[in-house]
Design brief:
- The complex is a heterodimer of chains A (329) and B (279).
- Chain A has 14 helices and 2 strands; from the N terminus they run H-H-H-E-E-H-H-H-H-H-H-H-H-H-H-H.
- With 329 residues, chain A is mostly helical.
- In chain A, helix 4 crosses helix 13, helix 9 runs antiparallel to helix 10 and helix 11 packs antiparallel against helix 14.
- Chain A starts with a helix and ends with a helix.
- Chain B has one domain: Orthogonal Bundle (MetI-like fold).
- Chain B has 12 helices and no strands.
- In chain B, helix 3 packs parallel to helix 6, helix 3 packs antiparallel against helix 9 and helix 5 packs across helix 6.
- The chains are: A mainly alpha (329), B mainly alpha (279).
- At the A-B interface, helix 2, helix 4, helix 5, helix 6 and helix 8 of A face helix 1, helix 3, helix 4, helix 5 and helix 6 of B.
Chain lengths: 329, 279
């Protein structure tokens, strides 16, 4: 354009237009750069989290080394710290909660996609997702004041009596019923991750082509057989992704667990015993921790949690991406 | 192949279990909301909103905690939303097919479900330790870090739904790209972007873990962002675990207030997108 206008006498209008074009080009470049910087900032946050955790955890990690991972000791007086008890509590509570939440979550998803009358689908779907909206501190206060006393007076004595003398199981369900402890935390976590598993499972169930289901119905399959033999195999990767996402949540959940875990730094065989998790330990002790090594050990716990959840969530996302690619969404 | 009757009864049994699962899910929701209303409603009165958090054994309210929560939430949204919207804009508009977008989307999805207590530790290392004391601004910053991924995600999703024909029409009349984005794409995706912001507010207004060691808590009213600041969730945490009855009652009432606020926000947010879907 400029070469054309250079050949001719420049009118005032053309000059003005050139100025406008230049202004537009500049403002567009500025806006583009701003959006790009914002996008890079997202990466920077994750990088910043990793770096700051490593820096904060360094004094503890260099002092204890690998022993930090396998030591059960947690002694603020002698400043000797090991992460085994919190790691154990985190993994056990998350694992039990997933074992409970997966069948129920998939059940609700099947109900919503296959059984539920159409007008009820949206309200029930929203109701289940409201469970995800309730802040975790609400689960905590509810678990401590309503759910734990209920478990203490009814469910736990019943289980203790039921499995008394049964080899193996009697150890799992042993000891005085405190109400709070591993099992209570796992149950609360199960309720909390349920909506995540349900909504993702429902979404991937919806990606199954109707033709596949109809052909199975056409040869006389029952609803359960269609679900079991067609829908679930077709969506297996997506369901696994949803479960992993739930697992990531359960591993990192803090406040609800802090209320009902009991915060005891020991590993007991019984599921009724008070225990602790990584996040509950940090939440309970961080502000009261004095001394470089104590604070640093708590940050080291946070770093462990970060690494574990990062790996699990990355795996979950990769699985969900595979489903998305297949449906071409 | 199993007999016809066996298959039919197996189907009935499994479908019954699925229905029971849905029943369990709904029952939990009802149980939790019921307990909240039951325990929290009795303590709900005007004093809760006008008086300060009391010392043990005395009556009082939650005014300073509510103000602190609102203040930190507003700052977090004001800081986090522009960053989130800009990043989402890059991913959906300028860099739709770039490698960077794929990476940012992956990392953002991880940030979206990362444990919030880790964000608290991050801000502690970043702000609290260099400043030497806990502060409201550190709490607000921690919440802003949680706002960004929610807004990024919804902004990108909503901008991707805007038909390209609209953008082409804008470009055809000579509008530069950023004006097309501002006056066409943003306008078309407005309700979706607002939904994202509302969801982000809902998410952070109940967050406790990232505030525990950034904003800490404060028994008194303060609007000084450079000092420790009370917030509703942290106050609930502290009061619920205390042995004093008045404090526990206030914790329940605070829990009711938060839940009502959060659920209202998410229902409104859903209403916004729901209307768009049917339109």
């Amino acid at each position: 354009m400029s070469s054309v206008s250079a050949a001719m006498p420049r009118s005032a209008a053309a000059t003005a237009r050139d100025a406008t074009v230049r202004r537009f080009a500049l403002s567009d470049a500025v806006f583009r750069a701003a959006t790009r910087i914002a996008a890079l900032l997202v990466l920077l946050i994750l990088g910043g989290v990793a770096i700051s955790l490593v820096a904060g955890a360094w004094p503890a990690l260099s002092k204890f080394g690998a022993a930090f991972l396998v030591s059960q000791s947690w002694n603020p007086v002698t400043e000797n710290f090991g992460a085994l008890a919190p790691i154990y509590g985190t993994i056990v509570t998350a694992a039990i909660s997933i074992l409970i939440a997966v069948p129920i979550g998939i059940g609700i998803a099947i109900f919503l996609t296959e059984l539920c009358p159409r007008p009820l689908r949206r309200p029930i779907g929203i109701a289940v997702e409201l469970l995800a909206g309730i802040p975790s501190i609400i689960y905590g206060i509810w678990g401590l004041f309503i759910f734990a006393p209920f478990l203490q007076t009814t469910v736990q004595p019943f289980l203790i009596n039921l499995f008394h003398g049964v080899p193996g199981l009697s150890g799992l369900f042993a000891g005085p019923p405190y109400g709070i402890g591993l099992l209570t935390s796992a149950l609360i976590l199960a309720i909390m991750v349920l909506p995540f598993i349900t909504s993702i499972t429902k979404d991937v169930f919806d990606t199954v082509p109707s033709v596949l289901k109809e052909s199975a119905y056409g040869i006389g399959c029952t609803t359960w057989e269609v679900t079991r033999r067609v829908v679930i195999p077709y969506t297996r990767v997506g369901i696994m992704g949803g479960v992993m996402l739930g697992l990531g949540r359960a591993l990192g959940e803090t406040m609800a667990v802090t209320f009902v875990i009991g915060n005891a730094h020991r590993i007991s065989a019984s599921l009724f015993a008070p225990a602790t998790t990584i996040s509950a330990t940090i939440a309970n002790e961080f502000t009261e921790a004095d001394g470089e090594i104590y604070t640093s050990s708590l940050i080291a716990l946070g770093f462990l949690l970060f690494v574990i959840t990062f790996l699990i969530l990355a795996l979950a996302r990769t699985m969900l991406l595979r489903i998305e690619k297949r449906t071409g969404a | 192949m199993a007999g016809f009757q066996t298959r039919k009864s197996k189907n009935a049994a499994m479908m019954g279990l699925c229905m029971a699962a849905a029943g369990i899910g709904l029952a939990w929701l009802a149980l939790i909301l019921g307990a909240l209303l039951w325990k929290g409603f009795s303590g709900l009165n005007l004093a809760v909103f006008t008086e300060m958090t009391p010392p043990p054994g005395e009556a009082g309210g939650l005014a300073n905690a509510i103000v602190g929560s609102v203040l930190m939430t507003v700052i977090a949204v004001v800081v986090g939303t522009p960053v989130g919207i800009l990043a989402g804009t890059y991913m959906a508009e300028y860099g739709r097919f770039s490698k960077l977008t794929t990476i940012v989307r992956f990392i953002n999805d991880i940030l979206l479900s990362a444990p919030s207590i880790i964000v608290g530790l991050f801000v502690y290392e970043l702000l609290v330790r260099p400043m030497g004391h806990f502060s409201g601004i550190a709490g607000a910053f921690a919440l802003a870090v949680l706002v960004i991924p929610v807004v990024v995600r919804t902004t990108e999703d909503m901008l991707l739904l805007v038909p390209n024909a609209l953008r082409e029409a804008g470009a055809a009349i000579g509008a530069p790209r950023w004006i097309v984005i501002r006056s066409v794409a943003y306008r078309a995706a407005l309700s979706g972007i607002v939904t994202g912001v509302l969801l982000a507010i809902a998410r952070i207004s109940g967050e406790t873990a990232p505030l525990l060691f950034t904003a800490l808590n404060n028994q008194f009213f303060t609007s000084n962002l450079n000092a420790p600041m009370a917030s509703l969730p942290v106050t609930i945490f502290q009061f619920a675990l205390s042995p004093y009855e008045e404090w526990q009652q206030l914790a329940w009432t605070g829990a009711l207030i938060i839940t009502v606020a959060v659920l209202t926000l998410s229902v409104v947010a859903r209403g916004l997108t729901g209307r768009r879907e049917t339109r």
